[in-house]
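Severity: low
Component: inverse-folding endpoint
Summary: output formatting inconsistent between runs
Steps to reproduce: submit the following structure tokens with default settings.
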């Protein structure tokens, strides 16, 4: 679970805060993105199958070590339904709905390889422009 530490901090909270890495916010690998429901809301990052935030989407509240067990969601007229297509290596645009945290998409499972940052309340409508189209395989958060 993503943990936010607000100021002022007591000395115990400061020590505990230093123990929590600012880049990797999940203590263990996520299992099939348990917080996902298809709705892109505040404090989440959403990745989209196609450029310009269209087609299927996946929402993340916490970091995710491995997109290979995550599915996109599609709009079914009155709600979102889980699609058959997996998220791994299929993201073409991204939005960060968190006002205070940066989302980092990583090229490889396990937070490795190349990466791009999506700053608070930021968006990238076409990842091809950054050479990162269909490359995202994991996600971390950095909150400051």
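Observed output (run 2 of 3):
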């Amino acid at each position: 679970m993503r943990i936010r530490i607000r100021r002022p901090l007591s000395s115990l909270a400061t020590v505990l805060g230093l123990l929590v890495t600012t880049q990797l916010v999940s203590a263990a690998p996520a299992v099939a993105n348990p917080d996902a429901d298809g709705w892109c809301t505040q404090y989440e990052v959403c990745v989209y199958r196609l450029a310009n935030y269209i087609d299927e989407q996946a929402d993340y509240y916490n970091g995710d070590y491995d997109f290979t067990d995550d599915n996109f969601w599609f709009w079914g007229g009155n709600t979102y339904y889980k699609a058959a297509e997996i998220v791994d290596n299929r993201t073409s645009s991204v939005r960060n709905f968190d006002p205070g945290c940066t989302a980092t998409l990583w090229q490889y499972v396990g937070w490795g390889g190349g990466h791009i940052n999506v700053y608070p309340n930021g968006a990238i409508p076409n990842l091809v422009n950054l050479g990162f189209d269909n490359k995202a395989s994991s996600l971390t958060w950095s909150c400051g």
